[in-house]
Write a structure and sequence with these properties.
The complex is a heterodimer of chains A (130) and B (136).
Chain A (H helix, E strand, L loop, with lengths): L9 H41 L11 E7 L4 E7 L10 H6 L11 H21 L3
Antiparallel strand pairs in A: 1-2
Chain B lengths: L1 H11 L6 E3 L10 E6 L17 E11 L2 H15 L6 E3 L4 E10 L3 E2 L12 E13 L1
Parallel strand pairs in B: 1-2
Antiparallel strand pairs in B: 2-3, 3-7, 4-5, 5-7, 6-7
Classes of the chains: A mainly alpha (130), B alpha+beta (136).
Chain lengths: 130, 136
């Protein structure tokens, strides 16, 4: 009768190592998916802002920045504000002021419209891992 | 969407502040509310059985006052009336199931485009609510 218990974890360690390599491999593909999604959201936001007579001058301020590293990727999308930028009026376009409500569609709509496509593309990439 | 907006307005009116729709005009008494929305967007993803009259959209409630404190107080009152205890609430809309849920609060800020007497700018804050309305 054995007086000790041993557990063979070599396969688990091999799987962990494999997943680690997969994360590194998949990161560029995920970045592409995020980039495409960000471009589509930006396009819709620009179209919506451009349809406003009052705020179409801020259209070109709507852009996005990609951030991330080997482990995460994000896109920050919206009107750029600050020195030399014309996105400062976008807040009034989306949310109004003391005399009236917003007149341009909330960017949440563009995000919501893209979300199912983004999720599908991301699942396709992750499916390639299996 | 018209009936849903009317239901939201009916919740705000008892608070004793003027509830304007889309724009605030005429003689303004502070604080006041501006209720605004689109004509009602459909859900992004619909099931094959979804009615074409389904609505999934945002409603904005702008609260305008002369002090930050009055804006905060009025916004809190509005939120309490629309979503009591911070929970989603059902609106009374004939023939439909309409649920309103708090979505997002925008920072209170001064409207520097408007100057009142004594050089004071009105302050305003915006609360966004999500409305989901489907046939009953």
């Amino acid at each position: 009768m054995a007086d000790s218990i041993s557990i063979d974890t070599s396969e688990v360690r091999a799987l962990a190592a494999d997943i680690s390599r997969s994360v590194t491999r998949v990161a560029p593909e995920v970045r592409k998916v995020v980039l495409v999604g960000a471009m589509k959201i930006k396009k819709q936001m620009r179209a919506e802002m451009g349809s406003s007579e009052s705020f179409k001058g801020t259209v070109n301020s709507i852009d996005f920045d990609m951030r991330g590293n080997a482990f995460y990727t994000e896109a920050v999308i919206g009107p750029k504000v600050g020195s030399g930028e014309k996105g400062g009026l976008a807040g009034i376009a989306y949310f109004g002021n003391s005399r009236g409500g917003g007149t341009v569609s909330d960017p949440q709509g563009a995000l919501d419209a893209e979300t199912p496509h983004f999720e599908r593309a991301l699942l396709d990439v992750l499916g390639g891992l299996l | 969407m018209k009936a849903e907006i009317a239901a939201v307005k009916a919740r705000l009116t008892p608070l004793g502040r003027t509830v304007h729709e889309i724009t605030a005009t005429g003689t303004l008494t502070y604080p006041y509310f501006i209720l605004w929305s689109s004509t009602g967007n459909a859900p992004v993803e619909r099931s094959v059985r979804a009615e074409t009259t389904d609505i999934d959209d945002h409603i904005g409630v702008t609260t305008v006052g002369l002090t930050a404190s009055s804006v905060r107080d009025a916004m809190a009152a509005a939120r309490g009336a629309l979503c009591p205890n911070g929970l989603p609430s059902s609106l009374t809309v004939t023939g439909r199931v309409a649920v309103l849920d708090f979505f997002e609060a925008r920072p209170i800020q001064a409207d520097t485009d408007v100057t009142l007497t004594a050089g004071v700018h009105p302050l305003y804050g915006v609360d966004l609510y999500r409305l989901v309305s489907t046939p009953a």
